[in-house]
Amino acid sequence: MRQPAGFVKSGAAGDNAQARAMTRPKANPFRRKLESLVPLSAAAGDHLEEITTIYDSHPTRANLVPREDMRGGRLVLMEGFACHYRTVAGGRRQIIAYLVPGDSYDLDTALQNRPDHVMMALTPVRIVRLARAAVADATQDHPAIAEGLRVAGQVEEATVREWLVDIGGRPALERIAHLFCELELRLRAVGLAEADRFDMPITQCDLADTVGLSSVHVNRTLQELRRQRLITLSGRTLTILNRSTFQAMAGFRPDYLRLRETI
Amino acid sequence: MRQPAGFVKSGAAGDNAQARAMTRPKANPFRRKLESLVPLSAAAGDHLEEITTIYDSHPTRANLVPREDMRGGRLVLMEGFACHYRTVAGGRRQIIAYLVPGDSYDLDTALQNRPDHVMMALTPVRIVRLARAAVADATQDHPAIAEGLRVAGQVEEATVREWLVDIGGRPALERIAHLFCELELRLRAVGLAEADRFDMPITQCDLADTVGLSSVHVNRTLQELRRQRLITLSGRTLTILNRSTFQAMAGFRPDYLRLRETI
DNA sequence: CGCTAACTTGACCCGTTTCAACTTTCGTGG
DNA sequence: CCACGAAAGTTGAAACGGGTCAAGTTAGCG
Questions:
Q1: Can you give the distance from the CA of residue B66 to the C1' of nucleotide D28 in angstroms?
Q2: Beta bridge partner(s), residue A262
Q3: CA–C1' distance A222–D11 (Å)?
Q4: A138, A180, B112, B171: least buried by Cβ within 10 Å?
Q5: Is the predicted pLDDT of residue A159 greater than 60, yes or no?
Q6: Of residues A162 and B23, more confidently modeled
Q7: Distance between terminal CA atoms of chain A?
Q8: H or E stretch including A73?
Q9: How many CB pairs under 8 A join A and B?
Q10: Tens digit of pLDDT for each residue in A87-132?
Q11: At A12, is the pLDDT very low, low, confident or very high (cuts 50, 70, 90)?
Q12: Which of B98, B164, B181, B217 is the best mutation test for A, with the most CBs of A within 10 A?
């Protein structure tokens, strides 16, 4: 498999309708994300949509947030996948966090990281850059938005701890399964997963750098997950075949994501 | 080796003077901790000392913060080591963070963790419980204190990410070495390490649960570190024999601790 | 002065890595 | 539109790091 098509092409006519439904959220993902964490008034939700209409596109592997501008601002991912990683002496790379549509992060805290911390697009992405003032306005006008962003930050922290536990001592099968459980819920929260099926454009190398395994072993583990009929993975579409069994096997408990409804 | 002596005995007469100097900070560790992160006025420093005079003691393995009281308060560790861990199905345990003297954490965020998140004393400890009002007063009277606590929180987050990178893909020797480098700097910052030597009361089982190895392998790795003359470890006293070599071997770079002077 | 927690050691086993070749997929340029 | 090239995925064989089990030894504390 190869890297996903760019937006120009995928936006063109002739697309498979189902694929579009799965990758194109019906509502603004930033709004949906915060709504998944805290109750939002219609006015607050509308406000979020208004400030996230102007975005720019970047291709796979683009380095997001290299510049010093936008101090105090916030980056919002509207479409595509990105990741936050750190390089280690020896050429290794550790992915620390994924960003999926609706996720955002503070540019100030990003800028005080070491230069070996990088934010990179894993697929073609669309991002909105909110200026400090825009964030300040939104949070002052709508306390629920401030609360939502605070909770989102706490979830981020909790997620890193969860990954630490996962990588610290679970065998390969459970590690990867746990990651898939998390992605499924996060994507479902913003309307990008239905019927336990979602678009998973992450390469096996990226997965390896996430869970601390070699890409060869990730490949074999994915085959094992398929062999045991726990998932299907054709093309870029991942389906979890029996959610409760799968979650139990992975030792996954969704509490740390703080979703208001976990379905 | 056995678990460390309780405070009653260690405070009694007949102690080795050097050992006392190493385990008894000259100044208030909470003050020193925040001073190591941000400049503090004398008034702010004195204020910190004033609010941390009343503490209570707990023995090794005591579960800290079980109660629902103290909402909005803050727990400050004044003496001894503690850790934050999570248990996993299968009996495994993953230590997520260490607390050394001067470290503190917010009881609100602690209380919204799952019940399988535990804060436990690794040695006999003395802790101060600051009520919400005490924290609010201190941060309002002295903005530098608020800033210091904010930075301390950011350092905590950065430390978890650092551990993730460490555990994600470094061999045993470097994993443990990296942890020792971090502990040395954190203890030095509060005056509990001198000449690259410090009191390391963490058992090999605890180390194992921290770095994601078996205790047997931790034991062998420690022997290997000694054999290579990188450290000495007699009783509970750890000495790093050649700091710059050791840090380089461990891939350790102290930036993430945000210490004002790294020496 | 014995009990118990912590540490140590040896042998064997298994999960995972490494290396290297090969196949498939897909984007691009001719 | 096809062919080429590069990125992604797949496979096998061999080596190794680390795990497990089980039996010790040491060292503090009561």
A1: 29
A2: none
A3: 14
A4: B171
A5: yes
A6: A162
A7: 32
A8: none
A9: 68
A10: 998 888 999 999 999 999 898 888 788 878 899 999 999 999 999 9
A11: very low
A12: B164
Q: Return all residues near A182 (Cβ < 8 A) that are at least 6 apart.
A: A159, A162, A252, A257
Of B94, B113, B157, the CB nearest to A168: B94
CA distance B16 to chain A (A): 39
Contacts of A94 in chain B (CB under 8 A): 164-165, 168-169
Cα atoms in the Cβ-side hemisphere of radius 13 Å centred on B85: 22
- What are B62's strand-pairing partners? none
Whether the predicted pLDDT of B212 surpasses 50: yes
| Mean pLDDT, rounded, for B143-165 | 96
At A231 the pLDDT is 96
Nearest Cβ partner of A157 from B89, B90, B157?
Answer: B157
E strand or H helix at B103: none
What are the residues with a C-beta under 7 Å from any atom of nucleic chain D? A 1-3, 203-205, 215-216, 219-220, 222-223; B 1-6, 9, 171-173, 212-214, 216-217, 235
Output the pLDDT for position B23. 43
3-state helix, strand and coil shares in percent for chain B, rounded to the nearest 5: 45, 20, 35
Q: Which residue has the tokens 């913003």?
A: A190
User: pLDDT value at position A167?
Assistant: 96
Q: Which residues pair with B261 in a beta bridge?
A: none
Taking residue B259's Cβ as centre, other Cβ atoms within 10 Å add up to 16
Domain A17-257 carries which CATH code? Answer: 2.60.120.10
B92 to chain A, any CB pair closer than 8 A? The answer is yes
CB B164 to CB A169 under 8 A? no
pLDDT above 80 for A63: yes
* Residue tagged 């939700």 (tokens): A45
- Does position B245 have pLDDT exceeding 60, yes or no? yes
A233 contacts: CB under 8 Å, gap ≥ 6:
A200, A222, A225, A226, A239
Distance (Å) of CA B6 to CA A60, B74, B99: 57, 25, 18
Q: Show residues of chain A in contact with B113, CB under 8 Å.
A: 158
Residues in chain B within 8 Å Cβ distance of A169 = 88, 92, 94, 212
pLDDT, averaged across chain A: 88
User: Region A163-189: what's the mean pLDDT?
Assistant: 96
Query: Which amino acid appears at position B83 of this protein?
Result: C
Averaged over B143-156, what is the pLDDT?
96
Please compute, for residue B20, the number of CA atoms within 13 A of its CA located in the half-sphere on the CB side. Answer: 10
- CB neighbours of residue B173 within 10 Å: 17
For the record, the structure tokens of B41 come out as 């006025």
CATH number for the domain whose boundaries are B18-257:
2.60.120.10
Residue B168 to chain A, least CA–CA distance (Å): 5
Is B94 within 8 Å of A165 when comparing Cβ atoms?
A: yes
Other CB atoms closer than 10 Å to residue A63's CB: what's the count? 10
- Closest by CA position to B182, among listed B235, B256, B131, B117: B256
Domain ranges of chain A: 17-257
